[in-house]
Write a structure and sequence with these properties.
Blueprint: H1 8-17, H2 19-33
Length: 45
């Protein structure tokens, strides 16, 4: 797959025009960054 380079402004414009996609990206970023502080490990449940 080819790498696509977008400026910050172009990426922001894309996300603003696709709110459902923006919400999904925000959810993934939150999980990856553990922004809620509730993740302790991949194998704990």
């Amino acid at each position: 797959m080819a790498t696509v380079k977008l400026s910050d402004e172009a990426l922001l414009a894309f996300l603003q025009s696709h709110p459902r996609f923006r919400d999904r990206v925000a959810s993934i970023a939150s999980a990856v960054g553990n922004l809620d502080g509730d993740l302790t490990g991949a194998d704990t449940g």
